[in-house]
Structures are given as C-alpha cells and as structure tokens.
Amino acid sequence: MKVLIPTPLLSYTGVREVDAEGATLDAVLTDLDRRYPGIRFRVIDEQGRLRRHVRFFADGGQIFDPAHPLRADDTLVLVQALSGG
Which CATH architecture has domain 2-80? Predict the structure, then answer.
C-alpha cells in the first residue's frame, strides 16, 4: 500500500510517499520500521498505543486502533500535529 509520510518523519524515509505491506495498521508500521528503522517508535509508544500527536487515516476515515484492518489498495496517511504559540 501507499503510505504518505509527514514532514517531521522525512528524515527516516527521505521521500513523502513510500510503499509498505501489512493487513493491519500495526503490521504496516512494523514493515515500515523494517524498511526505515526507528520510524515506528515515532508513531507508536512503548505500550503499543498510537501516539497522541500522530493521526492515521485510510479509506476515508481516521484509525484509532493498531489492529485496524487495511487493504493492499488503501492509502495510509500519517499526519503529525503541530504545536507552538
């Protein structure tokens, strides 16, 4: 599947769009980490939960669970929240 990478994570991939495989969000993130070591920890915490400052979207909706099923033809979009003042 196609995965769209936010600017803060470009240091891992070097490009805004990458390919990954997996039947669930967690499996896709594991595959991304195999290809781009360290990226998974930036979006998943030590307890395996989605980090609060990252949002995941696929198939027209937001994903809230790492076990969420994905299809090979989905586009997964990672969005990282911005903060500041």
Answer: Roll (3.10)
